[in-house]
Amino acid sequence: DAGVTQSPTHLIKTRGQQVTLRCSPKSGHDTVSWYQQALGQGPQFIFQYYEEEERQRGNFPDRFSGHQFPNYSSELNVNALLLGDSALYLCASSLGIGLLSGNTIYFGEGSWLTVV
Amino acid sequence: TQLLEQSPQFLSIQEGENLTVYCNSSSVFSSLQWYRQEPGEGPVLLVTVVTGGEVKKLKRLTFQFGDARKDSSLHITAAQPGDTGLYLCAGAYRSNTGKLIFGQGTTLQVKP
Questions:
Q1: Which of A36, A37, A7 is nearest to A22 (CA)?
Q2: Residues of chain B with pLDDT under 50
Q3: B interface toward A at CB cutoff 8 Å?
Q4: Model confidence pLDDT, tens digit, residues A33-59
Q5: Upstream peptide bond of B8 is cis (omega within 30 degrees of 0)
Q6: Residue B104 CA from chain centroid, whole number
Q7: Per-residue pLDDT tens for A84-104?
Q8: Do the beta carbons of residue B4 and residue B89 sit within 8 Å?
């Protein structure tokens, strides 16, 4: 049973460029959330997708956008990259959008983005 | 704005020592989770606490949720080098949301 898989694992981009990160949720999961984790910090919630719609959004600018496909996989897009966007981007999957008893969130290993 | 304050941020101890990590907030959480993250990997869930005053044990790890559901602690007994890693607490304001608010993490190093 594959867990949450993310690609690419590492990438380097130049300021002003655009990047797309991809995530496949754990088998059986239908909800995907994205988090940004800067070096030495805890993850920060970007947004959550369920039934191909953005359900919740954190305090991130519109440069951050996403998409969920019918097979529940998801993409995170970041436009006009800034140096401050350098971070580990984590994808998390769960069954349903809530944290009801027994509903566990599983995280992928992340995509390391370096903006130069 | 960091809504969950973890302390200490860094902890370096010898094998066999005990330690406690604290997670504090002025907000009430529906549930609180503790994760452990190793370098190059995503966070892995250790425990979820949902009831004020709840205590859960996982081998040498003891987790407690404050009575008012605003704070939590993680106590490790007789730490081992394998316990080394980043420990994160994360709270959810509502049970019908998957949005987690993370603390900044506690980096634990256990020396043999």
A1: A7
A2: none
A3: 4, 6, 30-31, 33, 35, 40-45, 48, 50, 88, 90, 92, 94-105
A4: 999 999 989 999 999 999 999 999 999
A5: yes
A6: 11
A7: 999 999 999 998 877 765 678
A8: yes
